[in-house]
Amino acid sequence: MFKRLKSDIQCVFDRDPAARNTFEVLTTYPGLHAIIWYRAAHFLWNRKMKWLARFISTAARWFTGIEIHPACKIGERFFIDHGMGVVIGETAEIGDDCTLYHGVTLGGTTWQKGKRHPTLGDRVVVGAGAKVLGPIEVGDDARIGSNAVVVKPVPAGRTVVGIPGRVVEPSDSDKKKRRAKMAEKIGFDAYGVKQDVTDPVEKAIYSLLDHIQVQDEKLEMLASELKKLGGGAIDMHFPKLDDAVLDPSDPQQAAHLKAGQKTGSINND
Predict the structure, then answer these.
(1) 208 and 142, same structural domain?
(2) Does one domain contain both 161 and 191?
(3) How many CB atoms lie within 10 A of CB 133?
(4) 3-state SS, residue 99
């Protein structure tokens, strides 16, 4: 018992740089308090003292803001950071070295008895506000992004974000260079995102950039071949993305402005 408590305390130091000493962790960390209460309640539940186990878990919720059903199964070195609003259902299973942040729900999607809550593998991290719902499996070393809603299994080692949850892919280095080149050329940088994974919206935008980059390279090759055959040089200047105000000094924009004035399609007000 004391060996397990010692490992629970040590995992707080390993994952929370704000932890300063053992006394502080024992007296001020509701995540640790909740797991201590859970261990006691789970012990009683397994010995058929279910009412007392539920009473202890209810008392723990009053004091910590964390609701853990005494029947769920939780592995070693489990850490709940901050903790307020965490809910872990009856048939949930959590592996070793997992971390949950505040507002996380490991919930069910049916009123039928039986397995109805998720199973987390080892070393899973679930971000603040995320909901993992149903009897699904989340593989070892998976990451669930903050506020994600996950209703499908998550492969080991993958990261899930969004509503509904989608697996995001690590960015290939060559693709990153090509996308960065095109983004710089046209003055675009999706949200200033610099992580090594892309969310689904950013991925879609960058897929368009990939397509534009290929077209751009083909046009440059075509212009080069035409010049070799005696044709004139082709201006490959890119117009500004913000064309709300046209610059008359720019020949292309001046032509566009003139054409717009003829057709009445441009409003200078």
Answers:
(1) no
(2) no
(3) 21
(4) strand
pLDDT tens sequence across 187-202: 444 433 345 555 556 6
Q: Which ranges of the chain would DSSP assign to H, the alpha helix?
A: 2-15, 22-28, 30-46, 50-64, 173-186, 200-228, 251-263
Give 80-100 pLDDT, tens digit per residue.
988 899 999 999 999 998 999
Q: How many angstroms separate the first and last alpha carbons of the chain?
A: 76
CB-CB contact of 36 with 5 (8 Å): yes
Quick one: 52 exposed, middle or buried, by C-beta within 10 A (0-12, 13-18, 19+)?
middle
Domain containing 97 equals 2-168
Beta bridge partners of 161: 166
Taken in order 71, 78, 159, 121, the sign of the CA dihedral is negative
Closest of 84, 82, 106, 203 to residue 154, by C-alpha: 106
| Prior bond of 155 cis (ω within 30°) | no
Cα-Cα-Cα-Cα dihedral sign, residues 244, 247, 253, 257:
positive
> Which tokens go with 132?
């993992």
Classified as helix, coil or strand, 35 is helix
Tell me, yes or no, whether 205 and 179 share the same domain: yes
Q: Is the pTM of this model over 0.70?
A: no
The residues that bridge with 132 in the sheet, in sequence order, are: 106, 150
Contact status, residue 165 vs residue 151, Cβ threshold 8 Å: yes
User: Are residues 44 and 105 located together in one domain of the fold?
Assistant: yes
C-alpha span between 148 and 130 (Å, rounded)? 5
pLDDT in tens, 52-67: 999 999 999 999 999 9
- Length of the chain equals 269
